Amino acid sequence: AAVVGSQAAYANTTLATGWKNCGDSSYTAQNLQVTISPANPQPGDSYTYTSSYDLTKPVETGSTETIKLTLRGIPVENKTTDLCTALAKTDTPCPIAAGHVTSVTKG
Predict the structure, then answer these.
(1) Maximum alpha-carbon separation in the chain
(2) Which of 15, 39, 41, 86 has the fewest Cβ atoms surrounding its Cβ within 10 A?
(3) CA-CA distance, 105 to 100, in Å (whole number)?
(4) What is the chain's Cα-based Rg?
């Protein structure tokens, strides 16, 4: 599972985001890259969320992910969930083979 840190700050309704892979070499997902387009979507706007990463081993039933989110350095979320349930309705459902993965979500 990958641990992802996110920081979001609101200033005049502009969303500024920064992503950081907080995992170490023992984590299954490495080299995490995240982009959101447009860079500053407003409420109600369409957006594209793209993530890419390298899996050191397959993601299979029973795999979990841990997500830690912060807002201006303040922890707002720290949860571990069933990864295959979370991915069930995405373009990268389980099982996912080891190797490079790119996932695109449109909203």
Answers:
(1) 43
(2) 39
(3) 17
(4) 14
Which two three-digit tokens encode residue 94?
Answer: 């389980």
Write out the two tokens for 69.
């989110």
Which range has the top average pLDDT, 20-24, 31-35, 57-61, 71-75?
57-61
Q: Which helix (DSSP H) or strand (DSSP E) does residue 87 occupy?
A: helix 83-87
Which tens digits make up the pLDDT trace of 30-50? Answer: 888 888 898 888 888 898 988
The length of the chain is 107
CA separation, residue 65 to residues 10, 98, 107 (Å): 27, 16, 22
Percent of the chain exceeding pLDDT 90 equals 28
Residue type, 35: T
Give the burial class of 42: count Cβ atoms within 10 A of its Cβ; 0-12 exposed, 13-18 middle, 19 or more buried: exposed
